[in-house]
């Protein structure tokens, strides 16, 4: 039971770490400061943060650089929210 709890804590910390890194990556591109302050997994890059599609490509490139991963076009098209970005980053890191 203790091992399971430690694993959950570790996963939660890893997710929070990912969110912090994502915040740093998207900050230069945001147009809505209030939405940025309240960023959660549910935050949408385009609708909430008002990041335009050209800058969204820059965000993806910055994510590739930060995490040393390659994001294919299919994954890039799905990366529209913090939650989707986390899922794709975790998938690429575990591959």
SS summary, helix count: 5
How do the SSEs run, as a string of H and E?
HHHHH
User: Which CATH architecture would you pick?
Assistant: Orthogonal Bundle
What CATH calls the topology is Non-ribosomal Peptide Synthetase Peptidyl Carrier Protein, Chain A
Radius of gyration: 14 Å
How much beta, percentage-wise?
A: under 5%
The N- and C-terminal alpha carbons lie at a distance of 28 Å
Name the CATH class: Mainly Alpha
Query: How many extended strands?
Result: 0
Shape: globular
Structural class by sheet pairing and helices: mainly alpha
Describe the main β-sheet briefly: none
Q: Give the count of structural domains.
A: 1
Average pLDDT for all residues: 88
Question: Would you identify the regions where 5 or more consecutive residues have pLDDT less than 50?
Answer: 1-6
Looking at CATH, the homologous superfamily is ACP-like
Q: Keywords, please?
A:
single chain, 95 residues, mainly alpha, Non-ribosomal Peptide Synthetase Peptidyl Carrier Protein, Chain A, 5 helices, 0% strand, globular
Structure, explained:
- The chain contains 5 helices and no strands.
- It is mostly helical and 95 residues long.
- The protein has a single domain, classed as ACP-like (Non-ribosomal Peptide Synthetase Peptidyl Carrier Protein, Chain A, Orthogonal Bundle).
- Helix 1 (2-26) packs across helix 3.
- The protein is globular.
- It starts with a helix and ends with a helix.
């Amino acid at each position: 039971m203790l091992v399971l709890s430690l694993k959950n804590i570790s996963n939660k910390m890893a997710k929070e770490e990912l969110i912090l890194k994502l915040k740093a990556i998207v900050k230069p591109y945001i147009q809505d400061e209030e939405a940025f302050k309240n960023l959660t997994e549910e935050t949408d890059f385009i609708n909430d943060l008002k990041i335009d599609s050209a800058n969204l490509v820059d965000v993806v490139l910055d994510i590739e650089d930060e995490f040393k991963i390659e994001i294919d076009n299919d994954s890039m098209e799905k990366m529209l929210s913090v939650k989707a970005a986390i899922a794709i980053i975790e998938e690429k890191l575990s591959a």
